[in-house]
Amino acid sequence: MNILVTGANGQLGQEIQIVSKNSRDNYIFTDVSEGYEHLDITNRDDIRRMVKEQDIRCIINCAAWTNVDAAETAGPIVETLNATAPGYLAEAMKEVGGLIVHISTDYVFGKEPYNTPCKEDQQGTPTGVYGLTKLHGEQNILATGVEHLIIRTAWLYSEFGKNFVKTMLRLTAEKPQVKVVIDQCGTPTYALDLAQVIFDIVENRKYEGHSGIYHYSNEGVCSWYDFTKKIAALAGYTACDIQPCHSDEFPSPVHRPAYSVLDKTRIKKTFGIKIPYWTNSLKVCMKRLAERK
Fold it and tell me: For the segment 41-55, what is each residue's pLDDT rounded down to a tens digit?
């Protein structure tokens, strides 16, 4: 099967490149960055052309506008990338009887004060443009009737690109003190873990008959403060004084979810997967980061 991966230069896209190296399928990695086959996912005709020419039967859509704060003022491009484009990709797969795997986000929640893990059928109540456009993307995919796996994830990090882990490694190494919010709780997700799950589902055709929305993050719950403390401890950066603070001390154009832990019961039961605890996955990522230096 020929599989098209969009956003291949992002965190998840790069991890999929790693886990798929020995696949029986043929992966085609696209991005707007140099070094990748170019595909404009906002152009319906370009998508259809590539699907036809490359005989694509599965699209893994990792492309998105992910700058949460900038999304508030960026204009129509956010809706185009996060909502319209996924609809185009889904249409193209529907036309050939293919599958779309689409990555969504915990930011589709947030307005309501939850204190239990969010389930897949829970009403989306996004508080900003990013979350709203990602919710629209889900809706556009569902409207096509295509075979689909929509996977919501959260707090994604890896050894690639810019992410919270790499930022906090730098800050706790350089600064005598850092303040990190303690009133936003969720679960970190190591992109390699998510990539392996997606690869397993697609490689072994586990998706057949299981279209739907699923949640995936690592196991456990923490605040951004707890996450930072663990990052610094694993790195041995004990000199930095890490202090908890509240969100209102860091003014932002977006009200972020105070509690966005994802209930992962459905994905575990449906596909028979075991999800690592977040601190265990963080140790793996930091070991890989150290090896890359």
Answer: 999 999 999 999 999
